[in-house]
Amino acid sequence: MNGKEADTFGLSSRKGSRLLTPTAEAIALQDLLLLAQEETTRELTLMESIVASPLTPFVGVFLIFYFMFIVPDRKKKREEAEMKSNLKKNDRIITIGGIHGTVVSVSPESGNVLVIKIDESGNTRVKINKSAVATVIKDNVATSTTTESK
After folding, report:
1. C-alpha to C-alpha distance for 75 and 105, rounded to whole angstroms
2. DSSP character string of 10-50
3. Hey, what CATH topology would domain 86-144 get?
């Protein structure tokens, strides 16, 4: 490094000596650089690191999706399964095909087959699966497993 380059970096040299000594300006510049590095290298708090993460928007969208769609659907399926497992004789039902009837018997051996009568005289009986039951009517109040459009 020649004398011209040393002056560019704020260093002065003694003639004939290879030893360079820093000037006050160079020391001040180094101090400023150290302070700047300390500011940028400080550790982030937990909240700052969560917000700064690129995964944060994806996690947020997933949580919104989970609580708006998955949780209510699970609740609906649980209620539907409970309603179908509690079917008993003389329950009035509506099938998914729109047939109104009264449960005559629940098949104990297969567990998912019902026999319903669909007329008042009781002569017409139909075997259906429990999965075909859409609504159970109890005391003039319909318990529906399907969402009705509004």
Report:
1. 28
2. TEEE-TT---EEE-HHHHHHHHHHHHHHHHHTSPPPHHHHH
3. SH3 type barrels. (2.30.30)
pTM, full prediction? 0.55
Please tell me which residue, 41 or 137, carries the higher pLDDT value: 137
**110 pLDDT above the threshold of 70:** yes
In the DSSP assignment, the letter for residue 68 is I
For 21-45, the pLDDT digits (tens) are 668 888 888 887 777 665 555 677 8
Paired tokens of 127: 């075997």
Residue ranges covered by each domain of the chain: 3-40, 46-81, 86-144
